[in-house]
Amino acid sequence: MEELDSADLPAPVPGPGQLLVRLQAAALNPVDQVLITGAMREALPVRHPFVPGVDVSGVVEAVGAGATRFRVGDPVIAWNGVPSGALAEYVLINDAPSASRRPAELTPAQGAALPTGALTAAALLDLTNVAEGASVLVVGATGGVGSYAVQLAKRAGLTVLATGRSGDRDFLARLGADHVLDYRSVNVAEEAHRLVPGGVDAVLDLANAGPGLAATAAAAKDGGQLVSSLGGPPAFERGVTAAYGGTTTPEGRLDALAAQAAKGELRIEIDSEYPFDQARQALLDFTAKHVRGKIAVVF
């Protein structure tokens, strides 16, 4: 991370099906850290040097051949895949369901803070395959994905248990958590079983990976489920099954999430904003601080 630097690069040119976007804001995600450090170079190979950033919010500057959904001047948001280069003045995005028109009710920073977090949360909740009235434990609930997962789970009619720190209680309750578990002072699995006798129907773990998932899988009921974006074993003790996934962009989903946010039905939590000339510091702080929601870089 200490080797981060800024540089002047030529403006990209949109190819077929692409849009050139002049950035107004970008948001940071854990994948940025992973790509920068090469921590998952085998699964996510990236040639260095590269421009990080996958959350885009800006204005269409030019339209490539065959791109028909947007016009020059349209405000847009996008989840841009890995890597995409959103921490730059200009970026190319695809004219695809991964992009949406930014509602006028959302600021550029709010627009940037929506795509990755909300799309990933929705995709992972799909994997839990639980019905209204079920219970879910969200581990890592204060982060960029977790803050949306809590809200979407509550809107789906689930009883939501959420992990955080003692100071996060009001924040998580505001998002819709029915119970907040302070992971620094209680055994999360034991507390989940106390609050939901027999265990929760599903655990959505956004913080742990591999063998570390066993501790939170213990919060699920016998035959329950654990869902994670970080990967791990196929099953756990007591018949608890596992499902792993990440960001997906079904047709219309980002449009719907943006509309919900515009109507105030989905909160966009921004921990802090940094000007573009402090993007390096934003990335360094992102690795070091306890973040509630998202960190945005504004242009």
From TrEMBL:
Pfam families to which the protein is assigned, alphabetical: ADH_N, ADH_zinc_N_2
EC number(s) from the headed UniProt entry: 1.-.-.-
Enzyme's top EC category: oxidoreductase
Transmembrane residue ranges: none
Domain Enoyl reductase (ER): 2-297
GO terms of molecular function: oxidoreductase activity
UniProt protein name: NADP-dependent oxidoreductase
Organism: Micromonospora sicca
Species classification: Bacteria, Bacillati, Actinomycetota, Actinomycetes, Micromonosporales
